[in-house]
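Usage

Read records sequentially. Each one opens with the input sequence:
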Amino acid sequence: MPSPRCVAIRVPATTANLGPGFDCLGMAMELWNDVSFIVEGERLKVHIEGEGKEILPRDESNLIVRAAQKLLATQKQQISGGLCISCYNRIPLSSGLGSSASAVLAGLLGANALLGCPLNHEQILRLGCEMEGHPDNISAALLGGLVVTVTTEKEITTRRFDVPPLLAVVVVPTFDLSTRTARTILPKKLPLADAVFNLGRTTLVVEALRAGDLELLSRVMDDRLHQPYRLERIPGSRAALQAAKRAGAAAVALSGAGPGLVAFSDGSAPMAISDAMLRALQDAGISARSFFLRASASGASVSITM
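and closes with the structure output:
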């Protein structure tokens, strides 16, 4: 069989943690990055449009390229000739919507397809987790829907759940809080009571999202493991989450490690929720923009042209 000449990849945004599900819950959202790999020429070329166009690197330091090279190295392979990678990014960078997971997954899936798909989903997921350092975004981006992931040194276990197309208002402040920084501010030890607080709520968040039960979600999307510490670093974030609830949101949370904030609603007042959150952030001197996103049942897809 001839080697593929062109590979097209679509990867969704994700919102992770979802309140109490720290590092184990993630959900795919209807916001997509499109990446193509074309074998042509004699050297690497990277074209970028959309989000991050002005700042993302166009050489081997690009995260998509690094992920592709990681997979190729595991197979002791390389692409003969040149490679053109074209990206159209819709997922904002450093937003809490899984932009880095999207890039990692695009690179892994693209390189895997160019080699004839020697690795299965579990192997792709393990490589992705090695690069990301945590599984929640990468699992949801790969599988779609709502995904619960637990990891050990030997294996990664996932369970995927279909969810109705719930509406989420995601407000992304123009505030720099990298995932790495957001992890360093977390305490090394936590009270047993805080761990117990999260355990039952995590289970019920899964049930609420799976069933589309916003009333249940409103009672259980609270957290004591990461949000209290991260929200302190994002000016206006607590006020924005409270404003979202007053405007009609059923449940609110930090999206991933932040600084994005997510508010789930029945769809009756998305603009009011967005406006309330934006005003609260503006009062704290922080500008922001809004995204109106549905949960996605689909994960990443790969199309191959010979």
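Summary fields computed downstream for this record:
- The longest helix spans residues 192-211.
- The chain has two domains: 6-162+296-305, 167-294.
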